[in-house]
Amino acid sequence: MIEMQNVKKSFGNNEVLRGVSAVFESGKCNLIIGKSGSGKTVTLKCLVGLFEPDEGSIFYHKRDITKMEFDEKKKIRQEFGMLFQGTALFDSLSVESNIRFPLDMFTDMSDSEKADRVNFCLKRVNMTDTNKKFPGELSGGMKKRVGIARAIVNNPKYLFCDEPNSGLDPKTSLVIDQLIQEITAEYNMTTVINTHDMNSVMGIGDKVIFLHEGLKYWEGTNKDILQITEGELFDFIFASDFLKDLRRRATY
Amino acid sequence: MIKIFQSLGEYLLLMRATVSRPEKARMYWIEAMRQCYSIGVGSLPIIAIISLFMGAVTAVQFSYQLRGIGLVPMWWMGSIVRKSMILELAPTLSALLLAGKVGSNIASELGTMRISEQIDAYEIMGVNTRSYLIGPKIIASLLMFPMLVVLSVFLGISGGWLAGILGNFYSTSEYVRGLQDAMKSYDIFIMFIKSVLFAFTISSISCFKGYTVEGGAIEIGMASTQAVVQSSVIVIIVNFLVAFLML
Ligand SMILES: Nc1ncnc2c1ncn2[C@@H]1O[C@H](COP(=O)(O)OP(=O)(O)O)[C@@H](O)[C@H]1O
Ligand SMILES: [Mg+2]
Fold first, then answer.
1. Taking the domains of chain B in order of start, what are their residue ranges?
2. Do A229 and A238 meet the contact criterion of CB atoms below 8 Å apart?
3. Residues A121 and A227 both lie in one domain
4. Given an 8 Å threshold on Cβ–Cβ distance, is A86 in contact with B120?
5. What count of other Cβ atoms lies within 10 Å of the Cβ of residue A63?
6. H or E element, residue A25
7. DSSP sequence for B18-55
8. CA distance B103 to B199
9. Which of A99, A120, A155 is the last residue of a domain?
10. What total of structural domains would you count in chain A?
11. In terms of domains, do A215 and A143 share one?
12. Which of A116, A231, B185, B237 is 20 to 30 A from B122, alpha carbon to alpha carbon?
């Protein structure tokens, strides 16, 4: 479980987060949704300590990451896995070496143990026979899978995904979403996902937080969200007039 | 002006942060070896060609001047080429070439890693990127630059010999006599001092420029250009200071 308390973050005069509090639960996919530029990535980067909030706290089981020294941060990050928006695979390393990197750097596993673990993770994301390829040779969907494999190789307690579906076709998006959902349940991880994709919200939104103008505007589940009939969130979900019209006519 | 001092401060802080205990020494070692290969082997051809021709040009031009005067024995040429290569041409020209090649390479590699969030990805894993990504590059430069400079000296001297023989300025035995004349180990010492200072200047400035890029592809290009320009300027200044203070 992760608890965000009154987090504020500005860049110069740009107040991106104006006091956001939220709880991200374990064993669930916690979604942060909002328009482009609403501060989803900034929130995620505050959570993992890449950005330092101007104010507020972020607790990982009573441990406040915003107050941690560099060495403590390094330690808690051993429990993190992150899938970046552009995957951030290391260009100069093969698929296999990318996934093995955290094991090489932080464990004393033998080469064969590492190879087993790497192959297990690759298999888990349905990517076999690509061990020796380089990131430049993979398609967008494949890169995301490798990104997920790298994120989970160290058995993280917390998984962070920044727009896991961006740049993917709807069908591949669905596969990636399902994969993240299954892995979250399987290992009882606390998973936080940024998205603006309504298919993901409906598919895996165990818990949904809607960011608007630097504040948490709404919070609920994917079941609740369809009940909305007006306001900013309504505009966001039913983006087109056509959909709005459909929603207004529908009865639940 | 304030901005210059601000950058300087950030640069010094970054350099201090690169010194830390490695998470795993073996991984740092592997990375340093990879960098040595890319800096050393990658720069060999250009350094070789330039040095050979610099030695040759030095020989031709000095021979032309000395013959005009007519009072100086031609066997001095060996000594002149050797001294120019060791004291000035090999370290300084190599450094300027390497500022262009290695400097832009380092800055754009780190800049790309920054923009594509690869640096963030390392950080999230718990890697101290300031030491893991910058340290090995500086170490590799400190190791490889002096070797390249030594190579440059030898090739420059060979170039001088070739040019002299082809142009009939002096015989091989005259040239060799000059080479052996009044050899000072202090010159070699200065050469190593210069190589090491230049290596640190170029690699650290380029790492700083690349590591701190913000924005996108255009900013990477700018950072890489700045890395080359600024490290070249500092190299020339350091070169003067070494000559002024130590010769
Ligand atoms: N490193 C940064 N420096 C300055 N401004 C930033 C930085 N990162 C994000 N921002 C600003 O924060 C706002 C929110 O961005 P972001 O969190 O990336 O939005 P999104 O919800 O699309 O992920 C934007 O206005 C952006 O310009
Ligand atoms: Mg974003």
1. 22-246
2. no
3. no
4. no
5. 12
6. none
7. T-S--S-HHHHHHHHHHHHIIIIIHHHHHHHHHHHHHH
8. 10
9. A155
10. 2
11. no
12. A116
Query: Does A166 share its domain with A62?
Result: yes
C-alpha distance from A102 to closest chain B C-alpha (Å): 7
Q: What does the pLDDT look like over A131-142, one tens digit per residue?
A: 999 999 999 999
What's the pTM? 0.92
CA distance A105 to chain B (A): 6
ipTM of the complex: 0.92
Asked whether A101 and A93 are in contact (CB, 8 A), the reply is: yes
Last residue of a domain, one of A116, A135, A155: A155
A147 and A33 in a single domain? The answer is: no
Task: Please report where in the chains the tokens 């709005």 appear, as a residue.
Answer: A244
Write down the residue that tokens 């369809």 correspond to: A226
What are A7-41's pLDDT values in tens digits?
A: 999 999 999 999 999 999 999 999 999 999 999 99
* Angle of the A95-106 helix axis to the B118-125 helix axis, nearest 10: 40
Domain that holds residue A104: 88-155
Residues 6 or more apart whose Cβ sits within 8 Å of residue A65 = A47, A48, A49, A58, A59, A73, A76
Residue A208 corresponds to which tokens in the numbers above? 């949904």
Distance CA A175, CA A141 (A): 9
Between the alpha carbon of residue B84 and those of residues A197, B91, B153, B154, the distances in Å are 67, 10, 9, 12
| A120 shares a domain with A172 | no
Q: Which two tokens stand for residue B166?
A: 């082809």
Q: Are B94 and B149 in contact (CB under 8 A)?
A: yes
Identify the residue whose C-alpha is closest to ligand 1 atom 27: A37
Judge residue A129's burial from the number of C-beta atoms within 10 Å of its C-beta, 0-12 exposed, 13-18 middle, 19 or more buried.
Answer: exposed
Nearest CA to ligand 1 atom 8: A42
CA distances from A111 to A104, A115, A156, B112 (A): 9, 6, 21, 30
Q: What is the pLDDT of residues B116-135, one digit of tens each?
A: 999 999 999 999 999 999 99
Residue B215: CB atoms within 10 Å? 12
Nearest ligand (C-alpha, residue B214): 1
